[in-house]
Amino acid sequence: MTRLTAEFWVSAYLARLRLADIPVFVVKKGDLTAGAVLIKLNTLDGKAQVFQRSFDLMTGERAWITLSEGDEASVDQALAKQRSFDPDLWVIEVEDKAERHLLDEPGFA
């Protein structure tokens, strides 16, 4: 199976969010081909979550899991830690009071 480049996946994700009128920003652009992607969901009330794509060894499936959640400052610290040891990392910030991120929709696993 052919894998999508990180840049292509991010472009498609941004387009889907914009079509749904959900504000989104690329906070850090990573490696165009194989950079990992972290999604920060900012609910604009001082709270946030960060999602990362994970591989389930038992089922062989990919799923988005919560890497960090809580007050926005602590979530930002967790992101800074990840960025400090992964220079290829992409960080995408989604801002939505209704907590929509679209990662549970078909095509984003």
Protein model, in words:
There is one protein chain. With 109 residues, this protein is of the alpha+beta class. The chain contains 2 helices and 5 strands. It has helices at residues 6-19, 72-85; strands spanning 24-28, 37-42, 47-55, 62-71, 90-95. Strands 1-5-2-3-4 form a 5-stranded mixed β-sheet. A hairpin with a 6-residue loop joins strand 3 and strand 4.
Highlighted features:
5-stranded mixed beta sheet; alpha+beta; 33% strand; hypothetical protein tt1805; 5 strands; globular; 109 residues; single chain
Helix content: 25-40%
Relative strand content: 25-35%
In quaternary terms, these chains amount to single chain
How would you sum up the global shape?
A: globular
Written as H for each helix and E for each strand, in order along the chain, the element string is HEEEEHE
Question: Would you identify the CATH H-level superfamily of the domain at 27-95?
Answer: Protein of unknown function (DUF1491)
Strand segment count: 5
* Biggest beta sheet summary: 5 strands, mixed
